[in-house]
Design goal:
With 298 residues, the chain is an alpha/beta fold. It contains 10 helices and 7 strands. α3 crosses α10. The chain binds 5'-O-[(R)-(carboxyoxy)(hydroxy)phosphoryl]adenosine and zinc ion (ZN).
């Protein structure tokens, strides 16, 4: 199978949340006395998980009489760049690459961002996950493909680069991998495990093509906006080839790519996005809800 089962994910949140918050508070000098507001992700994401988090945060804020602010998970990823580089201030351009999103956005000021480009079909992380499955690699696919690609020959398979002006698209690339595997007698449904050399070379070719497409899309946004500072954030920003290519391609610009632990989902980025949102717009009323398809970046 692979992937995330929504109900199991919500139950796992219910079990893990209180112990994780307790552990964080034990590490904080003064515990709750050191907390001056509560920030919580209110979207996008799986509704069950969002509800568990927002209910818990509302209860904690009410019990401690603290202001609460609902934050976009995507704003969290954008602000992970500010966590990595405390001197970073808007305006800057951010490439947000995760399991659900492939967006190029500009944070204009704290609390205000605009989307310049997004994917027409699959998110890039989703494409990594689906291609990994075709190759018989485990979930999540991104780290598995990165590992498998080490020592692989990215030239062995000629995969296409899809170019949509001022947008991204990854379904053509994913389908090209499926057809290339089929030509080699591999179904691509994850049932039959292809031979290791083929997995290595296909993983390397796919990774190379996906990174090429991301760099090209970011390049267009840089051209269009004249941005001097760019950040690459989200789970896929953990990819070493992407990190290296962005640094080389945009040499001369200020490039911020957070350390790996700030690329994948984390609570610190939500706290920082929450602080800026609180300062820019004030706290949220007690009845705010969740939004599984929220598309806010600040
Ligand atoms: O931001 P994230 O942790 O969760 C979402 O908000 O979606 O991103 C998860 C995505 C998954 O699709 C995963 O395969 C991908 O990030 N990912 C990577 C790497 N590490 C995680 N993709 C490519 N290379 C990696 N090293
Ligand atoms: Zn994320």
């Amino acid at each position: 199978m692979g992937g995330v089962v929504p109900e199991l994910a919500a139950r796992a949140h219910l079990e893990a949340l209180a112990p994780v918050v307790d552990a964080a508070l034990r590490a904080l000098p003064g515990g709750w006395d050191g907390v001056d507001a509560v920030a919580v992700t209110r979207g996008p994401g799986l509704v069950g998980c969002l509800l568990v988090g927002v209910m818990y945060a509302k209860s904690a804020a009410a019990a401690r009489r603290l202001p609460i602010v609902g934050v976009s998970h995507l704003a969290g990823h954008v602000y992970s760049a500010c966590l990595a580089d405390p001197a970073l201030e808007p305006p800057f351009l951010a490439l947000v690459v995760s399991g659900g999103h492939t967006d190029c956005v500009r944070l204009d000021t704290h609390g205000s961002a605009q989307r310049l480009a997004s994917t027409r079909d699959d998110a890039v992380g989703e494409a990594f996950d689906k291609v990994a499955r075709m190759l018989g690699l485990p979930y999540p696919g991104g780290p598995a493909i990165e590992r498998a690609a080490m020592g692989g020959d990215p030239q062995r398979f000629a995969l296409p680069r899809t170019h949509v002006p001022h947008a991204f698209s990854f379904s053509g690339l994913k389908t090209a991998v499926r057809y290339a595997l089929r030509d080699l007698g591999v179904s691509g449904d994850g049932d039959a495990v292809p031979e290791p050399g083929m997995v290595r070379d296909m993983a390397a070719a796919f990774q190379e093509a996906a990174v090429d497409q991301l760099v090209r899309g970011l390049d267009e946004a840089v051209e269009k906006t004249g941005a001097q500072t760019i950040a690459v954030v989200g789970g896929v920003a953990a990819n070493r080839l992407l990190r290296e290519r962005v640094r080389v391609h945009f040499e001369g610009l200020t490039v911020v790519v957070p350390p790996l632990e700030l690329c994948t989902d984390n609570a610190a980025m939500i706290a920082l996005a929450g602080r800026h949102r609180l300062q820019a717009r004030g706290s949220d009323p007690a009845d705010f809800g969740v939004d599984p398809s929220l598309a806010e970046f600040a």
